[in-house]
């Protein structure tokens, strides 16, 4: 195997440009199709809210498209790899490159370099844009597509405990003593966990101590009494610091902020396996784009006239999709505590890196 991976600047630029164009074409096609299907399933819910119209649909699309790009960019790299390599093979360009003395690794090097640049772009895009879009979209969905909250640091679907009692909020915004919650439900329970009273409120703010619920509706289970009121203070044992720890959504927090948050959880004695696995996956996820040219490389080699080009393309596609299946399964196992967080995030990457290299070396080198 030759170690000069870029012997020709012209060839490197040609292959890189070819690859980038196909990645963008496949990504645009996937995002447009999936966005149309998503709008078909959710546009009715958005337009059902009084005052919503075309502007809200465009807002939803602007928040959903970054999530689709994050999820399907590695798939686009895989499909672009297969399209590019099959085309090069059919046109005998791979044969010409190998006849000129290039090894299989030298043929793939421009694609791997391009995929590494795409992975770096994906990481920055995910942590700078997708996290913000995810936080805003979840808060909007929690508001049932009503007015989008204007507060910063908005979180959705928060679950808190105060001894035996439980408090949930559809939306939470702000930090420290300035925390405000909307669509709050407080469950007063006995020592056995049975619900004694349910209190529903429009809004909750910190009362130092406790949380002042405004616009309340109370229901006592034992007597079935229903009453309304202006305000009440509950949850005296809940502090803003506890809520700051309880409201973290790893998908909506950037990589550089999630690490210190996990450390704070660990100092508080909280379970952090799921968040730590997702923290590591913020690195390994985008880097999966780098694997795709290696896993799809089997489609580049072998004579096109042999009739096995289609089979080779299927093998490359199967290897690529197998990685995504194993990656999701390992991450799920990490979330449940079956794997250590680092292993759950990185084991599929290194496993398929070795598989791809083994296949390439055994068949072509």
Automatic annotation (TrEMBL):
It is a multi-pass membrane protein. Keywords: Cell membrane, Membrane, Transmembrane, Transmembrane helix. The chain crosses the membrane at residues 12-37, 72-88, 108-125, 283-303, 309-326, 338-361. GO terms for cellular component: ATP-binding cassette (ABC) transporter complex. It comes from Qipengyuania aquimaris. The keyword Cell membrane applies. Pfam families: LptF_LptG. This is LPS export ABC transporter permease LptG. It is found in: Cell membrane. GO terms for biological process: lipopolysaccharide transport; transmembrane transport.
